UniProtKB/TrEMBL annotation:
This is Cyclic-amp phosphodiesterase, class-II. Pfam families: PDEase_II. SUPFAM superfamilies: Metallo-hydrolase/oxidoreductase (SSF56281). GO terms for molecular function: 3',5'-cyclic-AMP phosphodiesterase activity; 3',5'-cyclic-GMP phosphodiesterase activity.
Length: 389
């Protein structure tokens, strides 16, 4: 894992990291598991060939998470310009010292965040239909269109695809974009289109974000259908069914011989007959451990939570258990792997030094040591940027 925006890094050093040590780059725009409306699950993913464009992994938060990212003191203006090389001059050439008031600075960051959200997020991979993984997509939908479709360097998709299973599409369509809770934006505008995918089938990401759904058969169109002049043409994805309190999914991405797995919510649920462990075993069986570098996965509760309180979520001991299974299946101690822990549910505690995050970090470190696993673990901050290669 590399920090592309390390304090004091020069422009050449940032370029080198983004080009050579950032096969997958992640903006952690949302990392928590509920309660705080300003910090819900959302990870933006880029590759070293996506030219500053991203796909969204879940979308519990969008604009406010991007705002947190661009306004973070660790992400200086040089880094933002290099990360988004196609920013228009009215954003990229701003002299921050000329912004004298807090209001001016806030408006700059808001305009920058809005442009990034509208222009550089090409599609949404949604794992499941709970509101804390979708509210950002819904609330931002009136501004879902691209700002500039005339770019000369690459093709802009005709719309932004909501890429997920048919079960999740049905839930979004009937419960959110339904003209009752929220206007049916996919019906009234060309900004969003649903792109159903099947589990356990390998797709090229560019097919999913560029091809019209009515010209793409997700059951059989597993070979690359459009050319390499489209973004994410060298990135593949396969989804897997997961257990939660409703259908959920994991996404296995591969780019430049590096693999990354994003898990939407999953875990034990005493009120369901779904075998959550066997679902995860199926994911493990599909990975190439020599290529796997990062797993983004939830740990919602501390080890003190009872099975009956999990409702399809995990504790540190559950994560250690499934990582030990991965290690045993592949005969590997996972020393090349980083676990990015998300979806921690904040607690109201009178012991201020023992937040849920602090306890989960300690319990994970202890559990991994006891299990003789060598993987690294990070619990990122909201607005952090991470690189993996």
């Amino acid at each position: 894992m590399e920090a592309a925006a390390a304090a004091g890094a020069s422009e050449d050093e940032i370029k080198s990291t983004l080009n050579d040590k950032c096969t997958f780059g992640l903006v952690i725009s949302g990392r928590e598991g509920g309660l705080l409306e300003s910090d819900l699950t959302n990870v933006l993913l880029r590759t070293n060939s996506s030219r500053g464009n991203f796909i969204s992994l879940d979308a519990g938060i969008l604009l406010s998470g991007i705002y947190k990212f661009v306004s973070s003191e660790t992400n200086n203006q040089t880094f933002i310009k290099l990360l988004f090389p196609n920013l228009p001059s009215w954003l990229s050439s701003v002299d921050m010292s000329s912004l004298k008031t807090t209001s001016e600075k806030n408006q700059y960051y808001l305009s920058l965040s809005g442009y990034i959200m509208k222009q550089f997020i090409l599609g949404y991979f949604i794992g499941h239909a709970h509101l804390d993984h979708l509210s950002g997509l819904v609330i931002s939908s009136p501004e879902g269109t691209f700002m500039d479709t005339s770019t000369k360097d690459y093709q802009i998709p005709s719309s932004k695809r909501i890429i997920t299973s048919t079960e999740v599409i049905s839930a979004i369509n009937s419960s959110l974009f339904n003209d009752k809770v929220w206007p049916d934006i996919p019906k009234y505008t060309p900004w969003y289109q649903y792109q159903p995918i099947e589990h356990n089938i390998n797709y090229y990401v560019n097919d999913l974000i560029y091809m019209s759904p009515n010209s793409f058969n997700p059951k059989i169109d597993t070979h690359q259908l459009i050319g390499s002049n489209y973004l994410f043409s060298d990135t593949t994805v396969k989804s897997f069914s997961l257990c939660h309190s409703l259908p959920s999914a994991a996404f296995l991405f591969e780019h430049d011989n590096v693999q990354l797995i994003f898990f939407s919510d999953t875990g034990s649920n005493t009120y369901s007959s779904c075998d959550w462990r066997s679902k995860i075993t199926a994911v493990w069986n599909a990975v190439d451990i020599s290529k796997l570098r990062v797993i983004i996965i939830e740990v919602s509760f501390t080890n003190e939570a009872q099975d009956s309180e999990l409702y399809g979520h995990m504790r540190p001991k559950d994560l250690v258990l499934i990582l030990k299974e991965l290690s045993n299946l592949k005969g590997d101690k996972l020393s090349s792997l980083t676990i990015v822990v998300t979806h921690i549910k904040p607690t109201f505690t009178s012991t201020f030094s023992e937040s849920a995050q602090v306890l989960i970090q300690k319990q994970l470190q202890s559990g991994l040591k006891e299990a003789s696993l060598d993987c690294a673990v990070t619990i990122p901050e909201q607005g952090q940027f991470l690189c993996f290669y």
